[in-house]
Amino acid sequence: MAATPTWVLVADGARAQFYRDDKTALIPALDHDLAMPTRAHPRDVGSDRPGRSFDSAGEGRHAIEPHSDWKAGEKTLLARAVADELAEAARRHAFARLVLVAPPEMLGDLRRALDPAVRRMVTAEIGKDLTHLPAHAIRDHLGDVLRG
Fold it and tell me: CA 92 → CA 67, 86, 88, 96, distances in Å?
């Protein structure tokens, strides 16, 4: 009987890396990673000054804060792109088990974005940012999770 392929997704709010566990090492599962475009500083994205508004009572005026958090929007877009990539790989039967490694906020975004069929393949979730580590160090961090 063939071994059950296990994929490991390592992501943060800006990029996602896909690995396949071959029982001795993590090797890239795809020929590409997913990444958001280089982030600009918030001061470079918004206007020079926030809008101004009059108080509802009196003569005072105050600045109007923007209503959207563009960084959260980027993270959500990345989570959706990752979910689409994983759904396509699952349709090809590229993996049968999936380990998610991401900071807690990104894990939440991924849970919401994942297709139910892919969600059932998740065998472990690790709430850490390991994107800065090489593949062998990521595998060391996962230890028993991959052996199980």
Answer: 40, 10, 7, 10
Residues counted in the chain: 148
Identity at 73, one-letter amino acid code? G
Encoded tokens for 9 = 């997704």
Does residue 56 belong to any structural domain of this protein?
Answer: no
Give 92's DSSP letter. T
Could you read off the pLDDT of 64-110 as tens digits, one per residue? 565 555 555 678 889 999 999 999 999 999 999 999 999 999 999 99
> How distant, in Å, are the alpha carbons of 8, 36, 46, 112 from that of 87?
14, 19, 35, 13
Domain containing 106 — which CATH number?
Answer: 3.30.420.60
First to last CA, the chain: 17
Q: What is the pLDDT of residues 8-29, one digit of tens each?
A: 999 998 899 999 998 888 988 8
Q: Is 88 helix (H, G, I), strand (E, B) or coil?
A: helix
- 21, two tokens: 């566990």
Q: What is the DSSP letter of 4?
A: P
| CA dist., res. 126 & res. 47, Å (int) | 38
